[in-house]
Amino acid sequence: MPSAPPSSRxxxxxxxxxxxxxxxxxxxxxxxxxxxxxxxxxxxxEVGAPKASLRxxxxxxxxxxxxxxxxxxxxxxxxxxxxxxxxxxxxxxGLVPGGVVLLAGEPGVGKSTLLLSAAAAWAAGGQGxxxxxxxxESAAQIRLRADRMGALHPQVYLAAESELSAVLGHLDAxxxxxxxxxxIQTIASAEAEGTAGGVTQVxxxxxxxxxxxxxxxxxTVLVGHVTKxxxxxxxxxxxxxxxxxxHFEGDRHSSLRLIRGVKNRFGPSDExxxxxxVHDGIVGLSDPSxxxxxxxxxxxxxxxxxxxxxxxxxxxVELQALVTESSGEHARRTVSGLDMSRMTMVLAILQxxxxxxxxxxxxxxxxxxxxxxxxxxxxxxLALALWSSARDIALHGSLVVLGELGLSAExxxxxxxxxxxxxxxxxxxxHAIVPVTADxxxxxxxxxxxxxxxGQAFRCMGNDDGVxxxxxxxxx
Length: 476
Fold this sequence. Notes:
3 domains, 13 helices, Ribosomal Protein S5, domain 2, globular, ATP-dependent DNA damage sensor activity, Rossmann fold, 9-stranded mixed beta sheet, 4-stranded mixed beta sheet, zinc ion binding, disordered C terminus, metal-binding, alpha/beta, hydrolase, about 475 residues
């Protein structure tokens, strides 16, 4: 019996299915429990057979002819001030017409309060009408908050909707210059599959809102939820659809709130804005140094000040440490606002090179005012705070310490040192201990000691306690 021709055999062969990650969009030939690209679990979905690659594509009509870059008008997309200086700092000058901003944060951190304040400031500044669409609260609830904040303005419009078509209808009726959608996970479209908040719905709603914002030149702010590990909830492609991604951070037990830029197509992506929650709303802090310093006049053992760089902003941080005898069988190590792994490293350096015995003692370290200090520039300040508490010797209140510690107790340079010193001098610090840096500009009225290792840092404080053993180990 003659065999079938090769063409018929290949035609009868079934097409292999393909899989695509719902988080990052990565395509795979076979199913995996974990996406090889974004490492997310259970996100690969079957999308059918892969399409044949395009070897030749014919030219089609263009939407607009290409023009020289110098002739492209840019006035229509220049940033407009939102009315909140700290928010404008992070945005790069303000909100851009047609730009889409994704503001993410934990529940209850104050996202809706911040945006309501921004909406009132936008309308009061004569920038046009504002439309706030909420899928989580009723219009009456938002009105009550606006009464408490003093954010009532006739150009601010409220709507409680959870259907995408209704949101677009409100856009046609109000014609706002600023749209606030709170939140993207609560809006659904009848044309997309799944429930509100699902991957398919969030992607479809975000794409539709972004397209309308670009077409009509409406500045848009989308509120997003975050997961337990602090990442933005929903598909990863959501961050690629928008122009700006902001993270709103803060501890519920602290009044301090930070807006951190993660992505910004219109300005710097490393800026930080500071806000403070008050009884009637939220206010920006142009100089938040008072929140991060205890304001204590008398020196107390276990405290040391340093300067952190949050984006391009230099902020003072006071570190507090307590070394005490353990009340149980096991000594505890506890941190608040600091990186536990870095404190463990600093403790080991102190025991090995600083002559500080911490066996059987509990060690607690924290920052003042809810600040979070995780950069290596705080290593030396933390080491001196721990040494101060262990030796019961208070450091001078005018001292500020900067530097990263190596495992052999060397002090390494840190980024932005001149900017940190200028901020320290502005805050009244007159003595600084910093790493050795070539051509360092010293602010007027400040004594700056450049040290190469931990032993030199001890000597700069005018106390040789613990230094003798260190020098013997070094063979000096």
